[in-house]
Amino acid sequence: MATVSYERPEALLDVPFHYCPGCTHGITHRLIAECLDELQMTGQTIAVASVGCSVMAYDYFACDVVQAPHGRAPAVATGIRRARPDRFVFTYQGDGDLAAIGTAEIIHAATRGENITVFFINNAIYGMTGGQMAPTTLEGQVTQTTPWGRNPAEAGNPIKVCELLATLDGPAFIARVAVDHANQIHQVKATIKKALQCQLEERGFALVELLSTCPTNWKMSATEAMRWVHEQMRQQYPVGVFVDRLREDQNSGRGGSAGGRHLSGPSAPEAVGLTALPAGYTHKE
Ligand SMILES: Cc1ncc(C[n+]2csc(CCOP(=O)(O)OP(=O)(O)O)c2C)c(N)n1
Ligand code: SF4
Ligand SMILES: [Mg+2]
Questions:
Q1: Which helix (H) or strand (E) element contains residue 153?
Q2: Does the reported pTM lie above 0.85?
Q3: Residue 275 forms beta bridges with which residues?
Q4: Which ligand is nearest to the CA of 99?
Q5: For the CA of 50, the nearest atom of ligand 1
Q6: Residue spans of alpha helices (H) in 204-263
Q7: Using H for helix, E for strand and C for coil, what is the string for 71-135?
Q8: Is the CB–ligand 1 distance for residue 275 below 6 Å?
Q9: Which atom of ligand 2 is nearest to the CA of 18?
Q10: Are 88 and 200 within 8 A, CB to CB?
């Protein structure tokens, strides 16, 4: 008798993704869906899609999905979560969406310790609109609007969202991972799961930044794009856990029912610190 070892998670609909070959949006969708299933959250979850290539996330997740205007996903998610405290809410936002037009929304949702989960897809570019510079575009990176490479003197410095939000008191969990190799998948999934568990336990705001690919606008092959995330993006955006109030509370013996905004965790940047996630690896073709 055949054994099923790999199948579509229930939280994903049975339709093909429209994403380009080598784009990590599809991998990330699948990992989120697997976590929703494993945590038995699928039937009670409402997602908030943003603009960008993932705008059609509503076609892929088997839960209710609201599409928010550019940058407003955290505000929309706040409204849904407060109106329906019996539901789980996550946003799925690109770097153009979250770190440009949505800067105010993400900072205020984080500082309120809003009980939502945010998946922040940092591919260092505006993918959907043809490859313009994003706030997270790397120094020196060539885009449609920085044809000679991003020059901080003219275009400002890249915004490090995790580091920025980690200075606030509100967030309960903030981490950055890289979707740049098959052997990172378990770590990426574990981090996504922890961010969802945070909401399950009513602990408050959680954000996972995922260093992601856009081979089409980077004008690279899928393999080159993965290598570029590994060799270039990780240099400017180190992976790690920036805030983990769940672990702090476990260590201090505190219980877990309060929202992040109610916890009296450390707020100084040096106190939240950067803990490297385990396991480096050798990048192989
Ligand atoms: C108010 C508003 N301004 C501009 C746009 C055009 N727009 C659509 S997607 C996008 C950029 C999306 O980039 P990102 O969020 O990084 O997502 P990606 O496609 O890279 O995944 C922009 C500027 C819009 N839809 N609404
Ligand atoms: S344009 Fe970039 S981000 Fe959009 S689907 Fe294609 S590879 Fe992915
Ligand atoms: Mg982008």
A1: helix 152-155
A2: yes
A3: 241
A4: 1
A5: 15
A6: 215-218, 222-228, 234-236, 245-252
A7: CCHHHHHHHHHHHCCCCEEEEEEEHHHHHHHCHHHHHHHHHCCCCCEEEEEECCCECCCCCECCC
A8: no
A9: 5
A10: yes
CA distance to 2, 93, 118, per residue, from 237 (Å): 44, 17, 18
For residue 38, the surrounding DSSP H or E stretch is: helix 25-38
CA of residue 2 to ligand 2 center, whole Å: 36
* Amino acid of residue 101: I
> Residue 242: what are its φ and ψ, rounded to 5°?
-95, -35
Residues 6+ apart with CB under 8 A from 74: 91, 102, 105, 106, 108, 109, 110, 114, 116, 118
Q: Is 100 in the pocket of ligand 1 (CB under 6 A)?
A: no
Amino acid at 255: G
Q: What structural domains and CATH numbers belong to the chain?
A: 25-272 (3.40.50.970)
The alpha carbon dihedral of 146, 285, 221, 177 has a sign of negative
Contact 103, 134 (CB under 8 A): no
Task: Give Dmax (Cα) for the chain.
Answer: 64
- Report the separation in Å between the CA atom of 127 and the middle of ligand 2, taken as the mean of its atom positions: 5
What's the residue count for the chain? Answer: 285
Q: Which ligand is nearest to the CA of 216?
A: 2
Residue range 70-115, pLDDT digits in tens: 999 999 999 999 999 999 999 999 999 999 999 999 999 999 999 9
Rounded Cα distance, 146 and 206, in Å? 32
Q: What is the pLDDT of residues 20-71, one digit of tens each?
A: 999 999 999 999 999 999 999 999 999 999 999 999 999 999 999 999 999 9
d(CA 98, CA 106) in angstroms, rounded, equals 7
